[in-house]
Design a protein that fits this description.
- The chain is mainly alpha-helical.
- The chain has seven helices and no strands.
- Helix content is 52%, strand content 0%.
- Helix 3 runs antiparallel to helix 6 (128-145) and helix 4 packs antiparallel against helix 5.
- The structure holds flavin-adenine dinucleotide.
- This is Sulfhydryl oxidase.
- GO terms for molecular function: flavin adenine dinucleotide binding; flavin-dependent sulfhydryl oxidase activity.
Length: 182
């Protein structure tokens, strides 16, 4: 015998409240802990549909803002991990990295603007502190041009500190380390 109409209404309402409308029904993170559903759960979708839904959720970065945030995260993290006493090669690498970003950054107007920023502010990578302060400075130049808040560079180590890797396994070797200067 089907459940009384009042229960069906409550169950339908609870599903609408507890599961975000744009959420796929199999997204366990957003499923309610307690569902009032009286009907058995729908059968799982065929594997091909699951793939399509997952693909949609991990769509490639397409927005300028997302690419920007991801790039700044990488650049500030590289600067935070940069050796206190870099080798000549590491100093060259830092300059080359920034030059490559200014040529290959996937937003032409951003790349062109960043070339100008680099011309006016040549890379300073004589030490970890110098490189991370320089990175903060040029990020602020971009922030200013976009009307964004200026970041206080004295707080850059608090925002982008050394990675917490076991036994400092993320640290790069520098001129001061066992490996000789390249
Ligand atoms: C090289 C480069 C050039 C770009 N040029 C352009 C452009 O010309 N036009 C455009 O529209 N977009 C450009 N972008 C993207 C833009 O800078 C932002 O990344 C994007 O708009 C998203 O901004 P956001 O406010 O989320 O934070 P973001 O600016 O991406 O910053 C990410 C996080 O870094 C921290 N942060 C902010 N400022 C600093 C700083 N000075 N030092 C250290 N940490 C800081 C904050 O915690 C912030 O949340 C560029 C990105 C890069 C990497």
């Amino acid at each position: 015998m089907p459940p009384p109409a009042v229960f069906q209404t409550v169950a339908a309402f609870s599903r609408r409240l507890l599961i975000a409308p744009e959420t796929a029904p199999d997204d366990h993170r957003l499923r309610p802990l307690l569902s009032l559903s009286l009907s058995p759960p729908p059968p799982p979708p065929p594997p091909s549909e699951v793939l399509k839904e997952k693909d949609a959720k991990v769509a490639p970065l397409t927005h300028k803002e997302e690419v920007g945030r991801a790039t700044w995260m990488l650049l500030h993290t590289i600067a935070a991990q940069f050796p206190d006493e870099p080798t000549r090669q590491q100093k060259r690498d830092a300059k080359e990295l920034m030059a490559l970003i200014s040529r290959l950054y996937p937003c032409k107007e951003c790349a062109d603007h960043f070339k100008e920023v680099l011309k006016a502010n040549p890379v300073q990578a004589g030490s970890q502190a110098e490189f991370s302060q320089w990175m903060c400075y040029v990020h602020n130049v971009v922030n200013r041009s976009l009307g964004k808040t200026i970041f206080p560079c004295q707080r850059v180590n608090a925002r982008w500190g050394k990675l917490d890797c076991p036994e400092r396994s993320c640290d790069l070797e520098g001129a001061n380390d066992i490996m000789p200067n390249r």
